[in-house]
Amino acid sequence: AARHAERDSRVAPVHAPPEQGLAGARNAGMRAANGTYLLFLDGDDVLVPGALAALDARLADTGDVDVLHFEHERVPWWEGEPANPAAPLLADTPDGAFAPGRARGLTGVLLPAWSAAWRRAFAAEQCLAFPPGHFTDIGWGGLAMLGAERVAVLRAVVVRHLVRRQGSRPNLPGGHHAELLDQADLVLARAADLEVSADRAGPLFEQLFAAVLKTAAHPRRLPSGRR
Prior knowledge:
It is a single chain. This protein is of the alpha+beta class. The chain is built from eight helices and five strands, in the order H-H-E-E-H-E-H-E-H-H-E-H-H. It has one domain (36-165, 175-219). 39% of the residues lie in helices and 14% in strands.
């Protein structure tokens, strides 16, 4: 990062305390950002060629939106076929900018934070920050979509995610899986405070409950004493 900054004045390395983890790093980046939209990219992700131009063109078509969801590709580094898990979620959404209630499946729970562009002013207005702990994308995405008023989608792959052979940390065994309950509680509490309509609350609860149930029923993720 420092070498890139030496070559390009637009690059500004930002440091976050390691103990704050992924959430702390992203929050530090948001505080330092000054662009119109926020894009998150983890160490095992890359932007596909032409990604930024495609995002710019799509935003020119839709106008200012709070969230622009896009597709991503999961690519196993050793063997297996690439997958595009976002495509089915985005397939039946309206063509232009729309209110979140018109796309019931887009609750923010099923897509990672790096599979969307987030309007920075919207994030600031909503006082959005990544919650500490594991599964922070669920907390962020759920809270963001509860506050969003105009969203849009780009039905094209923007990020290529490299799937590591050993799997991601959230899929490894350990007591950290209990933190999924904290993220779900955070989102559901906000939904209750906002008194969101049943057509939005229903899919949100279903997706959160499915994630919790999948983890609780997995034979290896949680220690048997905590299941």
